[in-house]
């Protein structure tokens, strides 16, 4: 039987063999939620890069560029890290360079996997449906916060494990823990996450609407996949 596992932070990725595995990267607040929303609204591609310098170089080459550090937009860039910024018809077909504190770093660290997919609650069902037809094991890579574990990405990992529990076995403690947390909190994720560290960071910035939006399930039938150095929308 296929296995699903969870890596709770990119700092632990070296403990996992991803060469024969599909990696699903989750940065619920807010990078992967932005990416899923962008593709749902017609963006052509997103190049995820680890550093602001790489992103600025791509901006100078003509890409629209989004840069976030510590939940704030980096000065001089075109887009921020709110999913609502990507609901813009002017971005239809656009190629975007993006760097964020945690999410894009997690994606770039996963390049040796069989496939790298972008996951969020917004496309949870689409990701699960795609994975049911695959023959590889799955690793959910939680982007976390600067190497630390966070609750929201762990809950996403548990939600995906819950959707796949009939097709994938859960053998390791990290996935069992994530699944238990999700089952405990799924009836009201906003309340369950009320004391989470990144919730507090975002609330201090006055963007509660982003929090509520990113916790919605199954809004989009979109699966972003890394092809070369760019994310594109998979044809399902």
Automatic annotation (TrEMBL):
The keyword Magnesium applies. Gene3D superfamilies: ComB-like. It is an enzyme of class 3 (hydrolase). Keywords: Hydrolase, Magnesium. The keyword Glycoprotein does not apply. It comes from the Bacteria. Pfam families: 2-ph_phosp. Belongs to the ComB family. This is Probable 2-phosphosulfolactate phosphatase. It comes from Fibrella rubiginis. The gene is comB.
